[in-house]
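Q: I'm writing up a methods section and want to include an example of the input and output format. Could you take the sequence below and give the corresponding predicted structure tokens, formatted cleanly so I can copy it straight into the document?
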Amino acid sequence: MAAMAVILAFSSCSVTRRVPEGQRLLVRNVVEPDKQAPKKERIDHERLSPLVALQANRRLLGTNLYVHIHNMASPDTTKRGWLNRTFRRMGEKPVLLDTARVRQSAQAMRGYAQYRGFYDAHIDYSIDTSRRKKAAVTYTMHQNEPYRKVTDKA
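A: Here is the clean output for your methods example:
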């Protein structure tokens, strides 16, 4: 019962209150495989997801509990109280969107596809900023045809 009260208290506070103006909190990364590629040749999202350089904060019971705990600490880092240190240690800093790291992730996924023989592969990404101070990134894989080694059987 006490855990439910804590969760309700955290859900009423804004997780983006300490996100600087002009920045956005990364809430989700989605990697979509190429649906037009044959299933046995398709590079699935489990292979591509670890290549995403910028991972969103962990979630617990559908909330950004770790960011809430971090936000409970004083923004003044000179305060040395044990409670302030505990909140900083238990919580997570909010992960902010960095478009350079998003491009880097797309290039890493393309490199992986080329390693697998899909030399004409490309990755599209879109950044959804429709929610106030929050962003979600969607990567879409386009594999195209793989190159195959042709051998003469003579």
